[in-house]
Amino acid sequence: MPEPVNSFVPPIYPRGSNYWPPTNFTVKDDRFIIAPTGSSGTLYTVTKIGENYPTQECKNDLPPGGKIHLVCGGLGSGFVFNEATLRFQQFYGFGFIVGDSAENTPAITIGKCSAIP
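User: That's the sequence. What structure does it adopt?
Assistant: Structure tokens below.
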């Protein structure tokens, strides 16, 4: 029987413990800028404030000119944003699949964005 899964709770693998206990991270200072790239209205970047380069490159799933719905990511990480709800979700998943290292912890961050008039 599979072990239960903890949703939206990033784990840290303590050395020698043989399990991933739930852990809450403080992410209140994490801020992202979602910006269009080019004039097509379909491509966007997501950059964490304080970083020099985007963490994600995204494509808008909805027709240009309306609200945006971004699904970004690739191998082991991603970012999803819905302009209608102003909610986002970012995840990093490599930590669990590559081994039991406390330095490479899987995480899910969720939040709500501020609208810019």
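The helical segments are 94-98.
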